[in-house]
Task: structure prediction
Amino acid sequence: MSETMQAIDLLENTIRTMIQKMKILEKENVSLGQKVNQLKQLVSDQNKDSTLWKDKYQSLVIAKTLQGSSKNTTHVKHTISNLIKEIDTCIAQLNP
Result:
């Protein structure tokens, strides 16, 4: 009987240890999930900032070209043409 009791005690101790490890891993999993969400938000914010700065840069390039530099007039005309096409597409989508 004593061998059986020892086996049961060993099994019980092993189960307790595994339960403790499982709880620790669950806490770590929650923590990592929160960190992932924070990093996703950070990436999203950085993408928005990047898009904003790209738009500002493009506007600056157009403004500089329109100020008198004749180097990029073809580029500016092309950009304006693309903007007009985008506006026409938006208007077409608004009309039923």
Remarks:
- The longest helix spans residues 2-66.
- The radius of gyration is 32 Å.
- The mean pLDDT is 87.
- Residues 55 and 93 are 23 Å apart (CA to CA).
